[in-house]
Amino acid sequence: MTVCKTSAQVIHQIEEELDEDEKKMILFLCRDLDPDLVTKLDLRNLLCTLNERGKLSPAGLAELLYRARRFDLLKKIMKTDRASVEASLAKFPQLVSDYRVLMTQLSEDMDKSEVTSFSFLLRDYMTGGKTHKNKTFLDVVIDLEKVNLIAPDKLDLLEKCLKNIHRMDLKKKIQTYKQSALGAHYVNRIQASLPSVGLMESRYKLGLKNGMNKEERPIFGQHGISTEPVKTSIQESEKSLPQVTSDIYRLQSQPLGICLIIDCVGNDADPLKDTFISLGFEVQCSKYLSTEEIHKMLHQVACLSKHKDYDIFVCILISCGDSENIFGINQPCSGFPLHRIRKFFTGDACPLLLGKPKLFFIQNYLVAEDHMEQHSLLEVDGRSDNVTYNGWSPSSFTIHQEADIFWSLCKVNVSVLERSPCSPSLYLSCLSQLLRQPEERRSSLLTLHIDLNNKIYDWNSRVAPEEQYSIILEHTLRKKIVLSSR
Question: Is the full-model pTM beyond 0.85?
Fold first, then answer.
C-alpha cells in the first residue's frame, strides 16, 4: 500500500509557526519513531526524514499538532480541525504512545519552581548527584530515560517525586495511566512492536494491529487528513457472516461456541470447565497432552464444522514452557511455539471463525531454557492456503485473517508450581472468579481483564519476585465482547 506523504512545503510552514517549547515537545513525542534521528536532527529535518521514510503520514503530523495544542495550524495548514483529529484517534491506532502523551501533559501542568524541586529530588538517584538546572520537565524525563529510571512501565520514582512536591493531582494521572496500560495495548501506526503490559515486555506481535484493514482506514482529504466520519461497518462475503452494525460482537448462538481447555498440569481444567459451561459454552477438555497431542488437538478443533453455527471460540492452555514455547508433558523436548497456537484459528486456517472473536488464555510455567533445541518438531500451522470449506474459500472474505483475536498470556516461574504442585494458577483462578460475577459478565472483556490485572498486580506487590505473575495482553478486536449470562 502506498503511504500518503506530506509535502516539504507543509512541513516548512508548520515548523516556522512553532515556538521553541513546542518544537521540543514534538521532538519528545517523536522519540519512539526513530530514537537515533531524534537526537541528531532538528525538528524540520526530522519530520522531513520521517516523512520520506514512510514513518510520518499526514494524519500522524496532524496528531502531533493536536498534541501540541496548535489547533490553529490544523485548520490553517492541514485543512482539518480538532474534532476530525479526535474522531480519527478514537477509531484508529495513534502515532504517539500514551506514555509520551502523559509526560507532555505533566510538563504542561508543572510550573518552573515545581520542575526545579522535582529535579532537586532526583539528586539521590542520579550518578554523582547530578542536577538538572535550567532544564524543562521533558528534558529531565529524557535524562531519566537514558539511565532507565523512567520508562512506560517504570513510573514509581516519578510518582514518588510528585508526591514529595505535593502534586497529588499529577500522581493520580500516572495511576490512571497505569490502570489503562494494564488493559488493551495499542500499536502505533508506525511501529510494529507493542509496549509492555505492566510487568513483562511483549514478544508476540499480531499480524494485524488493532484489527484495522484497508476498508477501515480513514478517508483522507487535503494533505491526507480525515475530514469526515468513517463508517465502522465492515462488509463480509455475501454468503458468510452478518455485517458489523454495532460495537458489540454478536453472541447469541446456543451454545455460544467451543471452549477448548488443554491442561497439561491438571490443576485448572475442572473449575474452568464449570465456569465456561455456566457462560453457555460447549466445553472440550483434555489433560496431560504431549506436544504432538497438543498440535493434533488444536488442528482437530479448528476443523470442526460446528464453528459455522457458533459465535465465538475460546482456547485455554496450561503447560510448562520457556519464553517462546510450551512443552506439554513430554519435557524436555523441542517446544511448540506459542505464536502458532492462534494460527490454527485465523481466517485462512479456520474460515468458519472468520469475523468471530477468538479468545486465548495461556498459563505458561517458565522453566530453564538451556536444555531446549533451537527448532520445533512441528512445522504445520493448519490447513493449506488453498482450502475450501463448505463452499467457502478464505479468499472470498474482506476481513483480515488476523482480526478478532484476543491473546492473554500469563507467565510465572515453574518454582511456584513445584512448591505447590496441586495449587491452581492464580491467573486462571482470578479469571474464573471474575467470569462468575454477574456484574463482571455485563462488562466488556477488556474491562474484565483490567480487573484481572489489578488482582495480579496486588498479588505481585506482596510476594517475592520469583512468585510474581506477568501478563501480556494483545488483541485485534474490532468490537467489544460481553460474556453476559442468559
Answer: no
Q: How far is CA 465 from the centre of its chain?
A: 24
pLDDT 10s digits, 351-374:
999 999 999 999 999 987 654 444
Contact 414, 365 (CB under 8 A): yes
| CB neighbour class for 27 (10 Å; exposed up to 12, middle 13-18, buried from 19) | buried
Rg of the chain taking only CA atoms, in angstroms: 24
Please tell me the total number of residues recorded for the chain in this structure: 486
- The answer to whether 108 and 68 have CB atoms below 8 angstroms apart is no
Name the residue among 67, 68, 61, 77 with its Cα closest to residue 19: 68
For the stretch 226-264, pLDDT in tens is: 333 333 333 333 333 334 346 899 999 999 999 999 999
Phi, psi of 75 (to 5 degrees): -80, -45
479 and 436 Cβ atoms separated by less than 8 Å: no
Q: Which of 193, 186, 231 is nearest to 211 (CA)?
A: 186
**C-alpha cell of residue 350:** 479456520
C-alpha cell at 486: 442468559
Q: Which set of grid coordinates corresponds to residue 134?
A: 535550567
